[in-house]
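wait is this the right file?? whatever heres the structure
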């Protein structure tokens, strides 16, 4: 099939493409990715171009000042993962965000220069391109530079976000920024970012050194000095993205290929799938009381494990294999009682042998040859630390809040962390990001991932089950209403319409507390059909769009 289409206007409408597909949080970034594929670029080329484009057109989460993870599967079945997660600076210390009484100072790890870890996105894209790229580096940067210099029209959602953030932007950027204006932003108004364009040109011309050395590095360090940050030139120069062996696990006839620590998502996802695998979900049905109860109880136990056992593997001996071992997962579910909810107060991390905010972004790509890339990237909070590097035009991350600022205390959205994720110099903070690729019978089946902080893992989990157990097409699976349990607080969070009134009554009679909340995640996914075509799923919770050819 040929042609090009945007997000399906109706979730049941299915359009399939033969030559490849991209799905991202922005129509502009998706178009950049598809154009790269049409020029002969592969999936990694498109990923690099989309990453830099998102830094321009999706500033609340797309970034060059943040970091993330990439899962790669070649057309021949080779797999790899790239860790370009941010790191704590050398001057970071365990108690740096506590007051004299040992109480966390909340805003200190959320806003301003001190909240930033060493950015990893540029190093990650350089490493990905050097290993797998096909087109010239400059070709991949050019679309983002043009979008920054010429501007792009804001969506209604983006205009509203910038207007709501204006006071904080003014407070933390007293000399102004392209994201601020006199009066209110309006939908379809052009956002031009000349300083960001100049920074992207440095990266285009000098690669990794164009960001971690030279003019841009000087601007980052000047910003640190201006606002009490701790990152140094040495921190920047020593940063390296790391290739790590993918975590894999089986769910029935499907093989899961996903991210190892310091992402908690891969281990947690495989634990969740193994927890529910013995049960007849297909027979029970989508969002029925038994289905929801089982999934919530599995999530409760997995998030308890996450809080204790997961951290940066370069600093902590993560019991990866033990946590995913079938008997261990089975034993964890033995305390599950169908007649009543298990109180989270009685659920501790399992005995084994041997946090980010919700404004992340994800994109999925498959190229003409069948190479697939799943990338999740983040600044942590929406617009990160809400500080733009003066003269360079990009936002700093606030990823330091993803550490256990005080082990045992919750982070900004309730996730508990333990000693494994305590702050240490040069350490990468734990993440919930769960970029994922699935195989079926040894062949590519699905590329999936989402933003959403602590809800990332459960959103990916539900999306996979929606397809493989409940026979939904890709768009239906992505659009479907979601629910989430994360151990503490002891609640099932549910989007409006996720749990019908009769099912709610049944669950509440067993002691489950169901709390409504706003949208969870923005899943962007691709499904390969039996016929060898690609279906896109672009999340209607945002401005996300799929494009195929």
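ok assuming it is, sequence goes like this
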């Amino acid at each position: 099939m040929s042609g090009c289409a945007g997000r399906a206007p109706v979730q049941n409408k299915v359009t399939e493409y033969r030559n490849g597909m991209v799905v991202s949080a922005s129509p502009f970034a998706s178009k950049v990715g598809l154009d790269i594929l049409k020029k002969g670029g592969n999936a990694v080329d498109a990923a690099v171009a989309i990453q830099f484009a998102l830094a321009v057109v999706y500033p609340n989460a797309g970034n060059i000042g943040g970091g993330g993870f990439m899962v790669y599967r070649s057309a021949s079945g080779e797999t790899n993962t790239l860790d370009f997660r941010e790191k704590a600076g050398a001057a970071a210390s365990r108690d740096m965000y506590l007051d004299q009484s040992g109480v966390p100072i909340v805003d200190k790890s959320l806003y301003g220069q001190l909240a930033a870890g060493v950015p990893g996105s540029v190093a990650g894209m350089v490493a990905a391109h050097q290993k797998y790229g096909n087109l010239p580096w400059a070709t991949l940067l050019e679309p983002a530079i043009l979008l920054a210099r010429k501007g792009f029209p804001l969506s209604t959602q983006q205009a509203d976000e910038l207007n709501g953030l204006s006071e904080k932007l003014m407070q933390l950027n007293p000399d102004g920024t392209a994201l601020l204006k006199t009066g209110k932003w309006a939908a379809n108004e052009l956002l031009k970012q000349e300083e960001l364009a100049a920074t992207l040109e440095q990266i285009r011309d000098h690669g990794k050194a164009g960001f971690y050395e030279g003019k841009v590095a000087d601007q980052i360090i000047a910003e640190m000095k201006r606002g009490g940050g701790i990152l140094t030139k040495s921190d920047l120069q020593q940063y390296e993205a790391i290739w790590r062996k993918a975590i894999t696990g089986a769910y029935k006839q499907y093989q899961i290929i996903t991210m190892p620590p310091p992402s908690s998502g891969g281990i947690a996802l495989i634990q969740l799938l193994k927890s529910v695998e013995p049960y007849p979900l297909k027979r029970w049905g989508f969002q029925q009381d038994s289905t929801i109860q089982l999934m919530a109880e599995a999530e409760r136990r997995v998030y308890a494990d996450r809080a204790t056992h997961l951290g940066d593997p370069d600093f902590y001996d993560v019991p990866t294999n033990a946590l995913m071992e079938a008997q261990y997962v089975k034993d964890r579910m033995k305390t599950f009682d169908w007649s009543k909810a298990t109180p989270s107060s009685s659920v501790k991390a399992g005995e084994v042998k041997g946090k980010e905010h919700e404004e992340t972004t994800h994109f999925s790509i498959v190229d003409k040859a069948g190479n697939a890339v799943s990338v999740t990237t983040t600044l942590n909070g929406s617009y990160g630390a809400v500080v733009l590097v003066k003269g360079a035009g990009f936002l700093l991350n606030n990823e330091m809040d993803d550490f256990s600022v005080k082990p045992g205390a919750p982070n900004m959205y309730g996730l508990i962390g333990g000693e494994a994720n305590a702050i240490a110099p040069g350490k990468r903070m734990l993440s919930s990001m769960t970029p994922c690729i699935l195989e079926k019978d040894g062949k590519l089946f699905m590329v999936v991932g989402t933003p959403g902080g602590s809800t990332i893992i459960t959103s990916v989990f539900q999306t996979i089950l929606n397809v493989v157990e409940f026979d939904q097409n890709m768009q239906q699976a992505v659009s479907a209403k979601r629910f989430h349990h994360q151990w503490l607080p002891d609640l099932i969070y549910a989007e409006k319409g996720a749990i019908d009134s009769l099912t709610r009554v049944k669950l509440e009679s067993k002691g489950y507390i169901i709390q409504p909340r706003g949208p969870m995640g923005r899943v962007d996914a691709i499904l390969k059909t039996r016929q060898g075509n690609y279906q896109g799923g672009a999340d209607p919770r945002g401005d996300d769009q799929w494009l195929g050819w």
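The CA atoms of residues 222 and 390 lie 8 Å apart. so i think its the right one actually
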